[in-house]
Amino acid sequence: xxxxxxxxxxxxxxxxxxxxxxTDRFFTWDNVKAILSSASLxxxxxxxxxxxxxxxxxxxxxxxxxxxxxxxxxxxxxNAGLLPALxxxxxxxAAIAALQGALVGLxxxxxxxxxxxxxxxxxxxxxxxxxEATVRPEGGGFATLxxxxxxxxxxxxxxxxxxxAFQYLLTxxxxxxxxxLVGESREAARAAGxxxxxxxxxxxxxAGAAYAxxxxxxxxxxxGASTYLEGTLTFDAIAAVLIGGTSIAGGxxxxxxxxxxxxxxxxITDLLLLRGLGTGPQILLKGLLVVTVVIATQRxxxxxxx
Length: 306
Fold this sequence. Notes:
Layout: H1 6-21, H2 29-54, H3 63-76, H4 82-107, H5 111-130, H6 142-145, H7 154-172, H8 174-184, H9 186-191, H10 196-222, H11 233-243, H12 255-274, H13 279-305
Helix pairs in contact: 1-13, 2-7, 2-10, 2-11, 2-12, 3-4, 3-5, 3-10, 4-10, 7-8, 7-12, 8-10, 11-12, 11-13, 12-13
């Protein structure tokens, strides 16, 4: 029997399909490439955030600041070469997020409150370390990240590769299964002998690495980075994870679902732009979708447990 909470989702999907079909240029190849390009930066970051949510830590509100700081580290280290700069940025992003994960895992600190504070600390550190001026590339390697093989930005290939790698990690490795178990119930995971603090820290570290990778692309695309670069990245990443169907309560979801969520967010944004609507309606619709999906997902989980 169809649950009542699926009805709003079906109606919303039907409305979007009708809008897309009646919007000029939406189904052109050039527009599809634009949607993929738009989804790539948010998608890479959101794929990392998926592990935080799956581990039962809801969401992180330090996504954007982490990505921006990583972009600054990446651009300022490019004089050492593309790969060393990428590795340094990813290591910094993973370390910063892992510290937050350790606090959540060891002391059960509220992850939302913690990451709000972490976001302020990261921005403050970035301004102290780099000043308020925009950090410009110290070398030319960033052009590689802006390349478009076969007419598609390299960030799209990276997003798909990260999604497949993370999906394998989640479904085919011990760590992945432990993340799901911890997300379902930390008490049961502890009773089963799973090192909860270590697993939560690892989930945050994976997320931080993805934030940093997305930040490197963000800095490359803008050919510079400052603390004002964040924009709506944090909330777009959260929207992609939740619209993709990952449960805010943890334990249920997947990177591939988040990939679908990121594509959906990008497609909706593109559709509204083609319809001549601005930022306000875009944020409003994404917010409505997130609320609807969260309610529907939670109701489905509650029904399954009843």
